Amino acid sequence: MQPFVLTGDHVRLSTPTAADVERILEICQDAAIQRWTTVPRPYLREHAEGFATSIVPAGWEAGTSLVWAVRAAGDVLPGSPEPPVLGMVELRLDDAPAGARSGEVGFWAAPEARGRGLTTEAARLVVDYGLDPEGLGLARAVWRAEVGNWASRRVAWKLGMRVEGQVRGMLLHEGRLVDGWIGTLLAGDRREPDEPWPESR
I need a labelling partner for 167 at 20 to 30 A (CA). Which of 14, 20, 21, 111 fits? Predict the structure, then answer.
């Protein structure tokens, strides 16, 4: 599959490249990203380079992991640099038969991009593309996060994900199993909150 751009009112999603290595390296020093995602610790330049120049292109080529960098909206002229990275969104696809495939959505945001709705808009663009018949035609989108990652859960909630439950030892984080939340969104579901936001949060 060839990479392509998705655009919204406030975000532009395009694949990260070698030109983004320094910015990715900078963002991934953030304590929250290191706490709640599976980025290596310590996060070194070689990790950013490998991600942008090897892991991302290989995922697109295989059609199994589609990764977009979240950037500010705006037209980019051919040959001009892309706006700086504000976050990342991935759609990881399973190998089920057509009509039964699922895609797991994951995301992170730079500190200065949080609380502005940019991650929600970016994730919605990706989920819409995945579920729509004119996109990938997936049967469902899946979201998973370590228990306690309320920022991730709020994005999933805004997308209409139904939190199906809490699973013991569902995720692997820094070599140990941790409890996780899992949510799903079927192709025919409304893409808006399906349940009240927990009052305690």
Answer: 111
Q: What is the mean pLDDT of residues 152-157?
A: 97
Could you give the CA distance from residue 183 to residue 46 in angstroms, rounded to a whole number? 33
Per-residue pLDDT of 41-83, as tens digits, reads 999 999 999 999 999 999 999 999 999 999 999 888 887 889 9
Please, what's the b/e burial string for 157-195 (b: 16 or more CB within 10 A of its CB; e: otherwise)? bbbbbbbeeeeeebbeeeeeeeebbbbbbeeebeeeeee
Domains, the chain, ranges and CATH? 6-143 (3.40.630.30)
Which strands, in side-by-side order, build the sheet including 140-146?
A: 6-7, 11-14, 65-72, 87-93, 102-109, 140-146, 176-186, 162-173
Beta bridge partners of 25: none
Average model confidence (pLDDT) across the chain: 95
Q: Dig out the tokens for 69 from the structure.
A: 């960098």
**pTM of the predicted structure, to 2 decimals:** 0.95
